[in-house]
Amino acid sequence: MQPTSEPAAVVVLALVVLPFAAAAVTPLVYRVLGERTAYYAAAVALACFGLVASQYGTHGSVSFDWIPALGVSLRFYVDGLSLLIGFLASGVGVLILTYSRGYMHDEPGKAKYYTALLAFMGSMLGVAFAADLVALFVFWELTSLSSFILIGHYSDQASSQYAARKSMLITVSGGLFMLVGFLLLANVTGTFDLSWIVNHPEQVRESLHSAGLFVPVLGLVAIGAAAKSAQVPLHVWLPNAMEAPTPVSAFLHSATMVKAGVYLVGRFRPVFLPEGVHGIPEWSAVFTVLGLATMTIAAILAVAATDIKELLAYSTASHLGLIVAGFGFASDLGAETGAFHILNHALFKAALFLVAGIIAHEAGTRKIAELGGLWDDLPVTGAITVVAALGMAGVPPFNGFYSKEFLFDAAYHAAELQGGLAWLYPVVAVFGSVFTFLYSIRFLMLFFGDKPDRLHVHSPPKAMLVPPAILGVLAALVGLGGVTATFGVAPAALDHFVAEVMGSVSPPGTEVHFSYYLPDHVTPPVLMSAITIAVGAAAYPFYDDLHRGINRLLSVDPLRANWWYDGTVDGLNEASATAVPRIQTGLLRTYATWTLAGVVALALGGYLAASVALPAFEFAPDMTLPLALVLGVAVVGATAVALAPSHISGVLTLSILGFMVAIFYVLADAPDLALTQLVVETLTLVIFLLVLDRLPAFYGELKRSRAVRDGALSLAVGATVAVTVLVSTAAQPDLIASYFIDSHNTVDVAGGHNIVNVILVDYRAFDTMGEISVVAMAALSVLTLVAMRERGGTQ
């Protein structure tokens, strides 16, 4: 099943770079084309789609050097999963950018809008094809950055600012957890090459288990994926992100950005999912439970929605949960579920978001209670909605039915295999699907029933109608393919492509086959679908009661995820407001205290974390009585500094230490160092005395608590320095001094008689010359100022 030809390096690089290059010149293009810049951006997306299509049938990686010293390359990997995400990012991008020509007609900031959309598309293509952990993280964060700009498009509105900050905080924070997981994975495997990691899962699992890092790395990657794909409880950013223009919602939050999270789950599925597992592996325990919980909770929240874009936002989170749950199951049915529903969801959800944009644009409202009877004014839009909404509901023979049927089959198969609590899998899947059916039918019913008297609807421009129509037709064709397959006429191209995606999310060497069709006999999944539709149809007349009941429950603060998010953020803001006056006091003493305390904590904490052992401490065997006396005087001088009654006496006693060090160098046969020490110590003493002459003689009484704190900090700093010296001098490396001691490299070659002088004059000649030049210029400046002293004040 795997293609044999290699991807073209230049083509893969071009399809990632092209959107960024186009985004860089978009502001200039907008000056020339104005609103027709939408067609320029759509042409760029179409070119990227063509480049992605040109790589269909290839498999493998291409690499370009990036940071060779760290083993990091700009490496790209082409397989079924990357092609699927690439097709969605570029293909849906063409339709969204074309749709933007009509939608953004009266909107502000269009140059920024198209620039950010192209940059986002390039970032998403980078995520899809990245085959290096560092490159994947960079593109991953670029999607968060560009989406921050797009979600906050209406930068003068507080709600837009709030939504952009929330999405950035959650998705970027999740990305940082993911980065830690990547670094641990690279440290264990010894490579950042994602393509190697994916193709050698057994070695990777064995290495992670040996290091005791399998579960931590799995958890860190899961947090990153959950944050990006809006899984519970990190789903709270997605509904607020609907503050963005509708084309942004359709592009980022149905077909691309949120798909990055499920892409990550699919990409790492072969690595973390052991073969031949009969129990519940860690992978399934995390992602199946997470996905089903998100699918159900988000579907319930969608029923509580009062705004059509809010309904679609929760619906998106719910269907992403379905995909994550599918990838979580260890069977081939799980791979089928995830691979096929990524495609189906992108088709019907992007179409519905564009429909929502048409409704809001032409009816002037997004409130569900204010809409109804839209079919008479928007018949084509209504027809698109029928196909897309019934696909979202999972009603046969529409496209969403087939992938949801795969989920039911995977859940029932896992329950049969594992037993016990695993029987909750099919129960929860059906329960969540009932709410999916309810909100899907509620969205569809906007086009039927009575039309409110005050509702006036206009016809949309063709630029806004054609893109959702294309998506609706594609969704209908996928659904029709299942019907024809029932009669023996299968959509071979689609089956082959989905099989390629399944192969990408399955362990290497797995034989995969894909086909879908309407069921022709009763099976457990068919019964589950029938129960879902029957219960949903029976419950729909009570939709308003369910809507009100759920909202009453959500009025209890702890039951709302937003309450936890807002409370955490507000609490951090209050903590910052309280801490700033205590930290930024304007006093040097405070800043020195925090700085030194931080250095001590980091240094000693690092030694403890690295389990650094202190070397045995003993006096040098060649210690002489004069050296011992000098060191003893130094200790007395240090004690005198602490007990000095005034600043002057403290500085004078401090100089005793410096002069004792100079004498120590003399006794150690290092006269050059002794002379340098004497000069430095003398200058330091003079400078101290000059400064003290300008300071007040009395500062007030020192509080006992402050004295204790300063004393403790001084001891901690001294201990840190002492430990650092002991640790750094304990090793016996290949000393660089041996190179200079060798007579062939110093005395004989340079003609000198002192190693220090030879190093300064020969090996560090330019450095020494620069230092001498600085000193000479300073001396000349001083002499000039002294000579001009008698000439007057202004010269």
What does this protein look like?
Helix 15 runs antiparallel to helix 16 (379-393). The longest helix has 32 residues, at 158-189. The protein has helices at 9-33, 37-54, 80-103, 110-129, 133-151, 158-189, 194-199, 201-211, 214-228, 237-240, 246-255, 257-272, 282-303, 308-328, 332-363, 379-393, 399-418, 424-444, 462-486, 492-504, 524-539, 543-554, 561-583, 588-609, 625-643, 647-667, 671-693, 704-730, 737-741, 747-750, 755-763, 765-787, and strands at residues 60-67, 72-78. It has a domain at 275-584. The mean pLDDT is 87. It is mainly alpha-helical and 795 residues long. It has a two-stranded antiparallel sheet with strand order 1-2.
Distance between the termini: 88 Å
Number of strands: 2
Rounded to an integer in angstroms, the radius of gyration calculated over CA atoms is 35 Å
The biggest beta sheet is recorded as:
2 strands, antiparallel
Q: Could you tell me the strand content as a percent range?
A: under 5%
User: Which sequence of strands runs across the widest sheet?
Assistant: 1-2
Task: Report the structural category.
Answer: mainly alpha
Q: What is the count of DSSP helices, taking H or I runs of 4+ residues?
A: 32
Shape, per Cα inertia axes: elongated
Low-confidence stretches: none
Helix content: over 70%
Mean pLDDT: 87
